[in-house]
Design a protein that fits this description.
Distance between the termini of chain B: 33 Å
Strand content of chain A: 25-35%
Oligomer: heterodimer
Strand order of the largest sheet of chain A: 6-7-8-3-9-10
Number of domains of chain A: 2
Shape of chain A: globular
Largest interface: A-B, 36 and 28 residues
Number of domains of chain B: 1
Largest sheet of chain B: none
Distance between the termini of chain A: 30 Å
CATH architecture of the largest domain in chain A: 3-Layer(aba) Sandwich
Structural class of chain B: mainly alpha
CATH class of the largest domain in chain A: Alpha Beta
CATH superfamily of the largest domain in chain A: P-loop containing nucleotide triphosphate hydrolases
Bound molecules: adenosine-5'-triphosphate, magnesium ion
Strand content of chain B: under 5%
Chain lengths: 284, 235
């Protein structure tokens, strides 16, 4: 679906190289996440993939076409939502979606159905000026889905959403995947990335420093041990045991039989820990 | 078709933002103004007002429209669809031209009824509007704020209203014949003072040439100042 080889980029008129040779590919049906601190180049990479910035070096193919050579009809096949949802404020949600729908030639979805999926059916005839950020974010997702895209590019899809709506959006993204669509998201939000991404790439200073599934990253970078907390003489005690051969570890087995256990956890690293370890940086 | 849909939505948008009311009020004001003038001055005043309508109004209204869209960052969402920049530019231009043509025609008819043959006049209005709207759009793409737009566009507009000094018999130079304004005035005046074919052909070609240049410039400004800033870090 997406093939990127040695992608380098510099904004016109700027001296600084923003991307220093990215390499990755995204197979069909995958949810792929870009994670990285502010200024890392995530949005720049996304703008290249969606054909806005064309003066890049390297190879970038999406749906089998070199993005540099695509024409506006490229947008018939892809869906894009930027972090800031922008609409005509004096038009209603429905008018906005109908306007955007009229710009496509291929098959499009019915705006009513999309609005219903994101819980905005009631507000179809409300002016977007009167929408909250969360409503605009969901409307933005509807807009990106209008043309039933094969591949969806979302910049910070859950930012500004309350937990209920963030979950709704995450579920919609997972539904897209189930329908065989490919999704690329860009985010600061580790939890969102961990919840929905099949693979994530950590980007720092225009370079990919790690790329793998969240699960694999956690297994590889976490400490392979369990932490046991138990109460003895009114005091909390902690013990650590290697996961390797845990079932036959006499000390561990006896402890379980002997003491009153309060908690028992494997010591997985969080994505945040892994990120800090890999990059020496915090995400925010 | 995409372009017709775009024009329809642009008209709707201009309506929602009160452009039609604003034009109506301005036209009624012009009509009232003309009523107070002695009939000897009415023709000249009518030409001048008919000139400002598509030119200056088109110029400033397109600025308002583009900056309004910039303020809403709407380009971020418009141009991740198959909508082509050229279609956007045509749709904005033609929708505003329609408005100019309606109001100019209304003003003209209010003064002279249906007795004149306004074909060349309306052609002049339409072509003038197309040129000034394209020029104003190019300026607006480059500006961040309404103030910046008014400053820059006043400078640009000044150059193009200079030939009025010839019409008002204040000062003249042959160089005026190269400016589109001269051609506009020629076409507008033809309704009262018929002109030979060679003259109106010259006027139409000159306006078409300037409109072509203005289109290329607007498109270049669009690529440089709108496309490259898209998906930026927002407002
Ligand atoms: N239009 C532009 N012109 C010049 N430089 C730019 C432009 N947009 C971004 N940059 C620079 O490119 C670098 C990468 O920016 P980018 O927006 O891709 O980062 P990001 O990873 O998306 O950050 P964030 O998490 O804040 O969204 C930054 O140093 C930024 O200053
Ligand atoms: Mg960004």
């Amino acid at each position: 679906m997406v093939e990127v080889r040695n992608l380098r980029y510099k904004y016109p008129g700027s001296k600084d190289q923003v991307l220093h040779g990215l390499d990755f590919s995204i197979p069909q049906g995958e949810i792929f996440g870009f994670l990285g601190p502010s200024g890392a180049g995530k949005s720049t990479a996304q703008k290249i993939l969606i054909g806005i910035l064309k003066q890049y070096e390297g190879k970038v193919t999406v749906l089998g076409r070199e993005v540099r050579e695509t024409k506006p009809d490229y947008y018939e096949k892809i869906g894009v939502a930027f972090e800031f949802p922008n609409f005509y404020g004096r038009f209603t949600a429905m008018e906005n979606l109908s306007l955007f729908r009229s710009l496509y030639q291929g098959t499009t979805s019915k705006p009513e159905e999309l609005l219903d999926r994101v819980g905005l059916a009631k507000y179809a005839h409300t002016k977007v000026d009167n929408f909250s950020k969360s409503m605009k974010m969901r409307l933005n997702l509807c807009r990106a889905l209008l043309n039933q895209p094969e591949i969806l590019f979302l910049d910070e899809p859950t930012s500004g959403l309350d937990p209920v709506n963030a979950r709704l959006v995450k579920e919609m993204i997972i539904q897209m995947k189930t329908a065989g669509k490919t999704v690329l998201i860009t985010t600061h939000n580790m939890q969102a990335a961990e919840d929905i991404c099949d693979r994530i790439a950590f980007i720092v200073d225009g370079r990919i420093v790690l790329i793998d599934s969240p699960r694999q990253l956690k297994v590889e970078h976490g400490k392979r041990r369990v932490r046991v907390e138990y109460r003895k003489n009114e005091q909390i005690h902690q013990e650590y045991y290697e996961l390797e051969g845990l079932g036959t570890n006499q000390e561990f087995v006896q402890l379980l039989g002997r003491e009153r256990i309060e908690t028992l956890h494997t010591e997985e690293a969080t994505l945040e820990d892994i990120f800090i370890k890999a990059t020496g940086r915090k995400l925010e | 078709m995409r372009l017709t849909a775009a024009i329809a939505y642009d008209i709707k948008l201009q309506f929602r933002h009160g452009f039609y009311y604003a034009y109506l009020v301005i036209s009624l004001f012009y009509i009232a103004l003309l009523q107070f003038l002695p009939s000897s001055a009415r023709e000249m005043a009518n030409i001048l007002l008919t000139f400002t309508d598509p030119s200056m109004l088109g110029f400033f209204f397109i600025g308002g429209l583009v900056l309004l869209e910039k303020g809403q960052d709407i380009h971020n969402t418009l141009f991740v669809t198959p909508y082509k920049p050229e279609e956007y530019i045509f749709s904005k231009t033609l929708s505003l031209t329609l408005l100019s043509a309606l109001s100019s025609y209304m003003i003209h008819v209010s003064q002279f009824g249906f007795t004149t043959k306004p074909l060349l006049l309306m052609l002049g209005v339409v072509m003038t509007s197309i040129f000034f709207t394209l020029a104003g759009m190019g300026v607006a793409f480059r500006c961040r704020s309404l103030n910046g737009f008014f400053f820059l566009s006043t400078l640009v507009a000044l150059v193009f209203v200079l030939p009025l000094s010839d019409y008002l018999q204040i000062w003249s130079t042959p160089l005026y014949h190269l400016l589109p304004t001269q051609a506009s005035l020629l076409l507008l005046r033809s309704v009262f003072e018929p002109i030979p074919p060679l003259q109106w052909i010259y006027a139409i070609l000159l306006l078409a040439g300037w409109s072509g240049l203005a289109f290329l410039w607007a498109r270049y400004s669009f690529r440089k100042f709108i496309m490259l800033q898209m998906g930026g870090d927002g407002p």
